[in-house]
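Following up on my earlier thread - several people asked me to post the actual chain instead of describing it. Fair enough. Here it is, all 296 residues.
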Amino acid sequence: MKNIINYFYNMYPNQIHQTANYYYFTLDGATYVFFKCPYEEKEITDIYRLHLTILARNLYVHQIIPNRHNELLTKVKNDSYILLRKTYEPSKIEITDIINFSEININQYSNGSNWAKLWSQKNDYLEYQTSMLGLKYPLIRESFSYYLGLAETAIELVNAQEKTSVKLSYSHRRLNLSNLNFNFHNPLNLKIDLKVRDAAEYFKEKFFEGKAIDTELSFYFQTVKLSTYEYIMFLARLIYPTYYFDMYEQIISGKVKEQELNKIIAKNQEFENQIKKIYNYYKSFLHLTPIEWLEN
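Reply from S.P.:
Thanks for posting it. Predicted structure:
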C-alpha cells in the first residue's frame, strides 16, 4: 500500500498502519486515513461538493484528498479507495454536539420529507428478500414481521402529516457509537436532511448499546425548538428500526452472525415502553392520530 500512496498522492510516510477496515499514516503532523469507498463516482462527487461547502464555512470535516490525477477515487485491485486528512476527532460525542450540529443554518428548506417513500421501498425490498431466504436464517424469519410492523407504524406517522416547509440541516447517514468520534466529521457520512434525523438515530444507538437516554431526551426536548411536524418526524424516525435492518443486511452479506440479532430482540419490550413514554408526553401538548399499540 505504501507504493500506492507514494505514486498516487506524492506522499512518502515512513510507516503505513493497517487495521481491519482502513489504512492510516501520519505525515507532517497530520493523520491520513485510506479506505474503501462505498459510493460510486457521481455520489462521491456530490459528497465532495458538500464537504467543500462545509470547509468554506470553517466547520470541522475531514478533508477529501484527490489523487495526482485530480480524481477522488483511486483504484486498488478493482476496489475504489479514498484518502481523508483528519481535521478534528473529539474524545466523545454527546447530545449537545448533535444539537449544535443540527442547528447550523444552511438556508435550505423542504416541502416535505421523502422518508415514507424511501422506507416503503425498503420494506418491499426486504419483505421480498426475506421470502426468498428459505430456511437459512431462522432468526430473521421469526423476527422480521415484528420490525416490519414498526416500520409501517413509522410510515403511518409520516403519511398522516400535512406537507409543510421545514428547515433542513447538516445530518449524518448513521451515528454508530463504535466509531462515532471519527465518523461525526467524516464527509462520506454527511447528508442534508431534517434536523431531527441525527437526534433520533443517536438515541436509538444509545438505547441499543444499553445506555440510559431519559436524561438526554429531556434535555433535548427542553433545549431544541421543534415544530409539530418535526416532533412527529422525530418519533417516526425513532420508531423506524434502522438498527434491525442494518444488522439484517450485515447478516445476509456475511459480516455478522445471525445470533447477534438476539441482543436487539431482547430489548423489544423495553424499547416499546420507551416509545410509549415519548408518545404519552406528546399527547400532553400535541393532537396525535391514535396508534393502537401505543395507546395500550
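Residues 171 and 201 are 10 Å apart (CA to CA). That should answer part of your original question.
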